[in-house]
Specification:
14 helices, Serine Threonine Protein Phosphatase 5, Tetratricopeptide repeat, about 70% helix
C-alpha cells in the first residue's frame, strides 16, 4: 500500500508540473513583446510605441538608450512620430549625446511627414535660434500650422509674436485672438494674457468683468499672478462687486504661489 500511494503521489505531481509548464508556455505575450515582434516585422508603429514604453518606463524598466534606437528605426522607416521623439531625445541629451543641430534635422523630417508636434518643435528652434539660424518669420508660419492642428502652445507662441511684432507686424487684436484660442484649449498662461488684455483694453474693447473670468481660469490653473490680479480686483470692486473675503483667499493663493506683493 505504501509503495502504491507513493507512486500515485509522484505521478500526480508530475502531471501538475507538466500542466504548469504548458500553461506558462501558452501564456499571452506582454505588450512589449508584441510591439517588439511587430517592429522586427517592419511595422514602424510598433517600433515607435515600444520606444515610448521604454522611454517612459511603461510595463517595465526604463531604457532611454534603447528608446533612441527604436525611434531611429521608426523614423528611418517613415514614421514621423519617431523622428519627432528622437529629435526631443537628441535635443535634451536623453539616452545619449546632446546635439541641437541633429534635433532640428529630425524635427524638420517630422514636420515634412505632417507630424505637427515636429512643426511646433522646429518653429521653437527657429524662434530661439537653437540648432541653427534664427528665423522668426518662418517660426510664425510653423506655430500657425501647429496651432491650426490643435497644439495650444503653438497658439500661445503665435499670440506672443503678434503682440511683440516678432517675425512680422504687430497686431494686438490677432494676439488676443490666438491667446483666446489657446485658453479655450486649456493653456492657462494664455488665459492670464487674455485677462490682462481685457483689463487694459489691448487688442479690443476693455472689459474688466470678463477679465475677472479669465484671471479666475488662469488662477485655477496655477497661474499665481492671475490670482493676485483677481484678488486686487475683488478687493477694490474693480470689474464687479467688492468681495473682501474672496479677495483675501486669492491673495493668499498668490502668496503661496510666490507673488511676494500679495503676502503683505
Amino acid at each position: 500500500m505504501f509503495t502504491t500511494n507513493s507512486f500515485k503521489g509522484t505521478w500526480l505531481t508530475a502531471i501538475f508540473f507538466m500542466s504548469l509548464i504548458l500553461v506558462l508556455s501558452c501564456s499571452e505575450p506582454t505588450e512589449r513583446e508584441k510591439l517588439a515582434k511587430a517592429c522586427d516585422n517592419g511595422e514602424t508603429t510598433g517600433c515607435f510605441k515600444l520606444g515610448e514604453m521604454l522611454e517612459e518606463g511603461q510595463a517595465g524598466p526604463k531604457d532611454e538608450s534603447k528608446a533612441r534606437e527604436l525611434y531611429r528605426k521608426a523614423c528611418d522607416g517613415g514614421d514621423a512620430n519617431g523622428c519627432n521623439s528622437l529629435g526631443m531625445l537628441w535635443g535634451d541629451g536623453i539616452g545619449g549625446p546632446k546635439d541641437k543641430g541633429m534635433a532640428r534635422e529630425l524635427f524638420i523630417r517630422a514636420c515634412n511627414g505632417k507630424e505637427m508636434a515636429g512643426c511646433y518643435n522646429f518653429g521653437l528652434d527657429l524662434y530661439k535660434g537653437e540648432g541653427g539660424p534664427k528665423d522668426e518669420v518662418k517660426a510664425r508660419v510653423l506655430f500657425k500650422r501647429a496651432c491650426d492642428d490643435g497644439i495650444m502652445r503653438g497658439c500661445f507662441n503665435l499670440g506672443t509674436m503678434w503682440l511683440n511684432a516678432q517675425g512680422g507686424a504687430q497686431d494686438k487684436a490677432k494676439a488676443r485672438e490666438y491667446y483666446s484660442k489657446a485658453c479655450k484649449g486649456g493653456d492657462k498662461p494664455s488665459c492670464y494674457n487674455v485677462g490682462l488684455m481685457l483689463f487694459k483694453g489691448f487688442g479690443g474693447p476693455q472689459d474688466k468683468n470678463r477679465a475677472r473670468e479669465f484671471y479666475k481660469m488662469a488662477c485655477d490653473g496655477g497661474q499665481a499672478t492671475a490670482c493676485y490680479n483677481l484678488g486686487v480686483m475683488l478687493l477694490k470692486g474693480d470689474g464687479g462687486s467688492q468681495d473682501i473675503i474672496k479677495a483675501r483667499e486669492y491673495l493668499k493663493t498668490a502668496c503661496e504661489g510666490g507673488v511676494e506683493q500679495s503676502c503683505d
